Amino acid sequence: MEQTKPTNTQQARGRWKLLLVLAVCASPLIFSYLTYYVIKPSGRTNFGTLIDPRAHPMPALGATTLDARPASLDAWKGKWIMLKVGPSACAKDCMEQMFAIQQLRSMQGKDMERIERVWLVTDAAPLETMLMRQLDEVHILRAPADAVAKWLPAEPGAALADAIFLIDPLGNLMMRFAPPPAGANEQQKVAHYAKIKKDIGKLLKASAIG
Hints:
Elements: H1 8-39, E1 49-50, E2 80-86, H2 92-106, E3 115-121, H3 129-134, E4 139-142, H4 145-151, E5 164-167, E6 173-177, H5 186-206
């Protein structure tokens, strides 16, 4: 029995239906970006640096687990990801940021389950056992340093390892948080991370996904 080929009108109608479905799926996130960054009620500011997600789509990094199994950040799509990158030698400033990432998630209360924390280790050196125990709440992957550097935009005059990045539930890199200023005391550091907590809280409140 001969099948009837769809007409150009039917094909066009099908494409429009597909685009409408995609628009509906993405609308909660788009709306949250508009309300938070574009419409902006008087007095509202964001502490982190907004990154254009179109310019930095999440790539295939060739990442692996620590025991060399293939892995991908796609595993946590559907959640907000706080991302830290850097070498396996995690010194004092690095450790402070790692602990901050864990606390920033906990401080979101009932929304904490919407957030994951990931560290991309950019070299092949082994991690200290004690360090891994201290970071047992953080997902740790290895990824080639050159692939990570091509993807993530560094703060001018700063290293990638200095920042905390935020990825939205659709896999879009969308925000970068700078570290506390050099020489900051404990009170200033607490105030710094409180501002990051506030940014993340606003995004979670505005977004219906993740």
